[in-house]
Amino acid sequence: MSRRLTALVIGNADYADAGKLKNPGNDATDIAAKLTECGFTVATHLNCSHQEMDQALKDFKRALKDSDVGLFFFAGHGMQVDGSNYLAAVDTDVSGEIEAKHSSLPLNQVIEVMEKADNASSIIILDACRNNPFERAWERSMSSRGLAPVYAPRGTMVAYATSPGQIASDGRGRNGAYTAALLEHLATPDCSVESMFKRVRNTLSTATGGKQISWEHTSLAGDFFFNLSLGARIDEYADTSLRDSLFVIDDKKTSHGVIRALKTHDWYQQNPAVEKFTADLAGRASSNSLFVVGRNIYQAACGSSNAATAYIADFMSRTAGLKPEKRKALLDGMLFEVFFDPDARLRKEFKLQRFQELFRLQQHARLKSSVVFDC
User: Fold this and answer.
1) pLDDT of residue 42
2) Whole-structure pTM over 0.70, yes or no?
3) pLDDT reported for residue 143
4) What residue ranges carry the coiled-coil annotation (predicted)?
5) How many CB atoms lie within 10 A of CB 287?
6) Do residues 298 and 260 lie in contact, with contact meaning Cβ atoms separated by under 8 Å?
7) Which parts of the chain have pLDDT scores under 50?
8) CA 196 to CA 186: how far, in whole Å?
9) 3-state secondary structure of 30
10) Among 34, 243, 266, 296, which is most buried by a count of CB atoms within 10 Å?
11) Are 298 and 334 spatial neighbours (Cβ–Cβ below 8 Å)?
12) What is residue 149's predicted lDDT score, i.e. its pLDDT?
């Protein structure tokens, strides 16, 4: 399995003309570490000048060409000028609004770079709604404070530390309140990105007494999980089991005959093959073969094979007597088919037709090594 995840993380704290912030350096460092745990390749930059931010974005643009998912995180001062958002560098010229926007990184530029990369998902996280002291000198109205809402192209999520037009204070502890909530929930196993941000919002609201409410604008077209627990387990199986193009059917093996029949997409061959796939037959098969059988049973069930659907529903009784590692291989194969395509790449749209049946298997303690859903 290969999830190609790329992130650019920037934390600006040592502002020349806006005062030093306490948290952004820690926020960026800690988020980068958490993203690395989740499999991201992360470029981290602290206290960037305007030129350094521009170069970091150019490097990020190149890295996104070889990625499935791109993520941009910024902690520091952000501002809106004439309805557009800008992320302030430590050397941003704050003598006036025109000077400030031309010496900051435009958020629209970040969005455009990520949109043109055409990744499956693009995620932008902004802990950048702090109260900027230099804004007061511009005599701007309260309605123009904080960050403005933005257009999120298809496949993109933009997450704000607080609602558009509102501001958030720099935190009192090691991290800002928003980033602290992110760090608490970002790596929750098998939790979709949308569900994760809901948890962040609830935690942040509680931590700030309801004064700070995070907000997201999303047009994500597929599902994304920062921590897909199944992905950490599939190294147990051979590449020939994970990738259809590498799997060779050996007709001398009875389990491979079942696989061949399931791959026909013909109910008149699939249903009898599933019926003859007894626990005794499964017990003689290798874990790698069982993993592939599991994948194809789930595929057949999604194609409305009655026997495959019944096999999933009666999984515990149909696999009674199997060694735990062989039962696990079957279930791992089914779960793998939900999330990964024939090339062992994360699907843009998960195969969820029979997912609820698999989800209900979590009630069985003996299957917890495979089913570890937290959302």
Assistant:
1) 97
2) no
3) 44
4) none
5) 18
6) no
7) 1, 141-143, 371-375
8) 6
9) helix
10) 296
11) yes
12) 75
